Give the backbone structure.
Amino acid sequence: MTHHTDKLIHSFQQRTEAILQKAIREWQMLPTDNMSTAPAPGQWSLAQCLEHLNFYGQHYLPAIDSAIRTAKQQGSQPDKMFRPGLLGAYFTELMLPQQDGRLKKKMASPKNARPSVAPDPTKMLAEFIEQQERLLQLLEAARAVNLNKIRVPTSLSPLIRLKLGDTFGFLIAHLERHVLQAERSLLHTSRLELI
């Protein structure tokens, strides 16, 4: 499915802004205990979800920044339409939560992306907010380059590279997936407090 580039970037910006506002307006107001409490053994707390997302941000944000800078130096020009690649579309669809918030497929995180037992919730949240602000800056910078031609190495392997547009799509879908997980964790924690 082909997308109008400007509309696609605008959609990505809106989705990222919604995540950022949730973190600022809701999560920053929470007691650290609520952020650190896992709903059940083997499930992640809000702080653990954030540590997991920050891990991916630490890879993808610098990689995207580098790809955009290089493309600008090489005279990249924006394309009016974006056509997702097969692999990029597959990865994004795999991550994207359904309309009702359910996940299409549960997946185990790679070992290196699994959170620690008790990450510092204040530190994790501060980094997460900073990363969302950076992502918004990169989305704006991406308006000046070709989302179809720029390739970004994935966290799986530097040999697997996705189109820039697909990288944004996958990264934001992954954020949304784990924001829902964090929300479910908080809901469970608040129920426990009522008992």
Observations:
- Strands lie at 3-4, 81-82, 151-153, 161-163.
- The radius of gyration is 17 Å.
- Residues 92 and 171 are 8 Å apart (CA to CA).
